[in-house]
Amino acid sequence: MDEVEKLLEITEELVELTKQSKDQHRDRDQVIQKIEDLLAKREELTKSMNPPFTPKEKEAGRKIIQLNQILVEQLKLIKQEIQHDIVKMKAQKEMTKKYMNSYANATIDGIFYDKKK
């Protein structure tokens, strides 16, 4: 199998993996690790590819470009999901702090001092 076909296979695997990551919130760390590994392999393959390309390889290259556009969009969605989860977690953390220490930020406005003895 030549490098362009390997690159196409890895790109297809990445697209499928990113589609699956939407369904698997629990295993997101493992999916992200697999994505990183496949992206590293893909980068090595692109560096080792040298022209001239055969017509079959050119067709595979066109398909890779189409899949790459889909992959970029799916990776953006995964990134947005992670950012949303981080924001939600920070807000939850703040609410927990406020609940656990509800009197820490008590204001002195409206306090009545009794001057009688």
From TrEMBL:
InterPro entries associated with the record: FliT
Source domain of life: Bacteria
Keywords: Bacterial flagellum biogenesis, Cell projection, Chaperone, Cilium, Coiled coil, Cytoplasm, Flagellum
Compartment(s) of residence: Cytoplasm, Cytosol
Coiled coil: 1-48
Function: May act as an export chaperone for the filament capping protein FliD.
Family assignment from sequence similarity: Belongs to the bacillales FliT family.
Listed name of the protein: Flagellar protein FliT
Source species of the chain: Aeribacillus composti
